[in-house]
Amino acid sequence: MALKSEQKDSCTIIVLGEANVGKTSLINRFRNDQFQEQLLTTLGLDCTTKDIILKSGKKAVMKIYDTAGQERYRTITKSYYQKANGILLIYSVKDRDSFMRISDWIAEIREKAKEDVLVFLIGNKCDEENRREVTKKQGEDLSKKYNIPFYESSAKLDINVKNVFQELAEEAINK
Ligand code: GDP
Ligand code: MG
Question: Which ligand has its closest atom nearest to the C-alpha of 88?
Answer without folding.
Answer: 1
